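We store amino acids, tokens; thus:
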Amino acid sequence: MFNKKVLSEQFVITHKVSNLLKINKKKLLTNAIKNYALGNRLSNEDWYPDYNYVHLSDHQHLAWLHDYIRDHYRGEYNATPIMIKRGAIVLLKNESLGSHHHINEWDYKNSPEISVLYCLTKEEKNLNVIFEYEFGRNKKLRWKENLEENKLIIFPSYLKHFIPKNINDKAVVALSFQFQLL
């Protein structure tokens, strides 16, 4: 008999957030755009990926979204996500988000285990987040998921990803959360 242990798992989970959830997306969008306009970036150093993310101010609707993610993930996968970082991505026309992951290479122990993207805007032309496989024979393969309004995209934080150039006339805004699992 063989005894198999899974050491790591590459996955992308998608979930459409229920319209019954009374989250005010306009308030969340205003929160992200305001912090973007004020230049409230997660990092002021443009060589770090956090430079492309902006702060999110505390807000009741943000807390409700976090609770929704936590409760649904816990119910489905028997692990409780504890948020350790959050931010917003604002991509104007012709802007992109370069390839990166969410692991702090100087502090693996306190790095997130899963990351979540939640798109707030509806695009005229599809925009994708593209994931880059990194292991074994699958090295350099890609997977793409459409960034769609009201869609959660959950993936391991070590998985490199990027968003190509926004070809829409309007800005694309997505919330980003990173969690450790209990």
